[in-house]
Amino acid sequence: MPSMQVARNLSALCYEHHIEMRFGQIALQTVSERRQILAYSCPEPDCLVHYDASRGYFIADQNGNGNKLEITPNVRCPHDGASMYLAEVLPEHKSFRLWKCPQCNMNHSNGSNL
How many domains does the chain have? Predict the structure, then answer.
């Protein structure tokens, strides 16, 4: 990703609650260290869903440990391979999902490019 300015301007939605996520620092525990990263987090209490343009959607518990047991969406941009974020859902069309690329801004919806 070229700059963090771009990352702060995304309107990423939580794939569980379909509400806009908040951008800020979160603590992550890796195998060797605990560190702070900038990422999106769902504002819903007790929701552990996060999004980062470099790793896509991921789950981190309150201790910052990644949870490999939960399956998260992994939608990749067909143009540059970046992890896309959920940008829009339509309540009247429950299966509709609009994904956007954080790098090239390409849109992808339910298997078709827009």
Answer: 1
Q: Which domain holds residue 56?
A: 1-114
Query: How far is the C-alpha of 56 from the C-alpha of 76, rounded, in Å?
Result: 9
Give per-residue pLDDT as tens, 77-87.
Answer: 999 999 999 99
1-24: pLDDT as tens digits:
343 344 568 899 999 999 999 999
Distance, CA of 59 to CA of 81 (rounded, Å): 21
**SS3 readout for 16-50:** CCCCECEEEEEEEECCCCEEEEEEEECCCCCCCEE
Each residue's pLDDT tens digit, 44-80: 999 999 999 888 999 886 665 655 546 789 999 999 9
Would you say 46 and 14 are in contact if contact means Cβ atoms under 8 Å apart?
no
Cα(46)–Cα(84) distance, integer angstroms:
24
